[in-house]
Amino acid sequence: MTLENQLIKKTFYETLMEADEKNPVRVLGEAFLSGYKDETADISTIRFAQGEVYFHNKDYEAAIFKWENVHNHLEPWAKKNIADCYYELGQLSTAEEIYKSIDTESSVLQSEVALQLFSLYIDQDRLGEADQVIKKAVSFNPDYPNVTDIARAFFEKHKDWKSAIELAVNEAIRTESHHWFDILKTYVEQGLTKILEPHYFSKCLVVLYRVDQIRFEQMVQALWNGYKNEPSYFAWLREFNQLFLNMDAKREQPWTDLPALYQETYFELIDGKYLIKELEEIISILLTNWLKIADDSHALFASAAVLAWSEKFPSSISPEVVNDAENLIFRSRDETDGLEYSLTLFDSIVKWAEAQHVDPGYRFRWIIRELVDFQTHHLLVAGTSGNGKSAFINSILGENIQTAPTSSVIVFKGDDETEIRKVSDEELTTFSSFDEFQEAVDRRLNKGVDNAIMEFSLPAPILQENRLVLMDTPGFSDRNGIEGEALKYLHLADSLLFVLDANDPFTEKEQEILMQIREYAPNLPIHFLLNKIDEIYDEHEAASIVEDTRSRVRAYVPEARVFAYSSRLRSRKQQNDLTEFLKSLSRPVAEDDRMEKILICIRQLISHLLDKRAEMENSLADSIKWNEEMVTKLSGAIHQLTDLKEEKARIITRTFHKILEEIRADLSENIPKILRQTSDMIQEDSDFRKIHLELNDEMNRRVYAYVNDKVLPKLYHSLQEWILTANDELNHCQSFLNEISDGFNAMYGEERLKLNCDFKVLDDWRRDADRMTSGVQMDKVNIFLRRTPYQILLKSAGKLFGTFQQNNALLYNKYKQFVENQDYLDVTESIVNKLLLQFELFEKSLERDISLFFRTPFAVLNQTVEETKKEINEKEEELEKMRSNPETYRDPLTLFEVKLRQYEWIAISAKRVFQV
Questions:
Q1: Are residues 467 and 377 in contact, defined by beta-carbon separation less than 8 angstroms?
Q2: What is the pLDDT of residues 823-835, one digit of tens each?
Q3: Less packed terminus of the chain by CB within 10 Å, N or C?
Q4: Whole-angstrom distance, CA of residue 821 vs CA of residue 239
Q5: Of 235, 319, 222, 241, residue with least CA distance to 286
Q6: What is the pTM (predicted TM-score) of this model?
Q7: Are the beta carbons of 399 and 412 closer than 8 angstroms?
């Protein structure tokens, strides 16, 4: 045992004893006594040993006393042991103070003191100081036994993962031990390392690559997956790939995990979730590294990916790497399921488009569905106009279906039931009748060429027996050659049957069209049908024409077959020959050919979606402009309606006011007359003491009778006429609003506006008119009892002289003269005002009622304006977003195109044909 181990375990005293000694206290006591007597002896050493014995026997005070008197080279250890005693005695502050006071150059003693302090701090739950002291212990002497394990256990217990990871990284780099690399990998797999930036692990990875490649791959994969879906993922990809680029990794090394990881990552990155500016720097170095280590099972994908990316971004990958990919791709084994990858790509594009609220269209889905049906052969029947193509198709189908040149692509399928469907980008519809189908495809009725596909299923034995589908396209024009739609669907066909006219077969124009077809679809098998052969009456001449045509077409298409046919003849031999001919064309469908066609369809879909983007922008701009115009028109309608409301309110209220004025004039004129006429009740023999009361009652009675019998019936009649007039005026308003709503609805293309007025106001007016004219209850008016001087005098005279008969004549004349000569203006005005008060209140409410009449149209128009403005704002924001960030739409499609090009390279590799 070394001296340091003895000092650590406090067994130094054993060096002063003989092997067979059993009593260290006696032996050391005798040695101390002997040394004490010998002044030259070093008794400090004996005291140190005695302290150890006392310590082991838990006599800590004696041990402290002995160690306090050690003054030689063992003094630092003695101080440490004194602190240990105080630690055991529970005097932790004293122990800590002594530990900290120890000054020594011994790394072992420093480590021991640090570990003791660490334990002391743990006991006191002083975790921060414990953390500092254990880190210090590891930093100045990491090789000290158990110090790193103690530190690791402490960090893990208290979930100080940053410190634990730092310890593992440092120890892995320092020791190059598998143990520490495995510990670090465990942290990575638990997701604990995501808190650190990727560059933190670079040095560790360099060391691990040199030490153990298998563990290197495992560590890289763990870190890779750990940073995935984290904000620092791209930083990891940049950091690691730059690091790996400078490593001497080679394809010949036995890689197990990294090639597959690179492939998975590449496909995820270009799956449409990221912008190209985010990927350009990463993808080029990622592809370079992937190709560098691609094994046999990944070389094809890696090289195809490099070539596809370099084509789209020519300067992003070095020429040496591109050349390596070109050489590798044609030496790689093709064990991939290209069809599955292609269909997955198609589905990815469709899902992406739907997420962008762009409908990829039913047509592309229909085409893909057709292409994955490997049991069915698609035969495209083509030819220039007038060559009898339609008649030939009708003869095969057994029905006269094609009666005119078609404006659409028609696909004829054999089935037990007849069903006709239109497959367009926008919708999938079923025709209800054959006439509807004919109208939809007749070229004479449809000037433009429809890009929709007409799927015509019907019982046709020759199609059903041979699993054959006939495709008819708009005829090739003598002037323009192949039209766009016909050219587009060449890739849906497995072979093409070119219909020629036996009277003038294979003209120069047809030769040009054939060359166009070969250029656009170089691998499409082409055969020829020599139609109208029955019009050649001489059999030898007919045979000569057939042979000459066969010779001429084979100069262009060496493997082409030529079949002479007459659509008019229905002989069994011709039908049998035709059946055999079609059966020979219906060769088995090769998966590689169909995959090629699927890739072409995907390219067309990408192009379609790019065009859709432009259409969406234009549509939004048009919609904004249209809605702005609608706001202007709606605002104009609101102004018109406001003017109309004010005009009708003015007319209706003015008419009503005129009625009231007429009534007021009538009353003002006739009430005074009625009041004066009451003089007829004054007689010479009247009781002039009461005459003033009788006159007042009679005047009230006659005014009341006049109002109820004469005025109110007249007023009722006038109000009924007024209501009829108002009804006409308001009906005119409703008619006007109906015209407005019809106009707007025609522009909207839907019944959006309903500008219905509230005619309930007329019912309210009728009810009020009946109520106000059905009779009035008038309070008695003080007409003749007012206190005017003359009236007071008359009443007084009547009371005074009424008892004297001789005075009656005088009173009679005076009363009669007074009643007949009064103007009654105040009384009349008071009566009229009271009588007409409710009518005047009604008049004041008319404007409010008319506003209620127009309330709904105003509300509808204003709400439509607000909704339209809101729609404008939303569309402007959407358009601004589209125009300011076009890459958010364009970049994913570009990346899909890169992936598509990669699959095309794989298809090229499978055929071992080099095409750029």
A1: yes
A2: 888 888 888 888 8
A3: C
A4: 120
A5: 241
A6: 0.75
A7: no
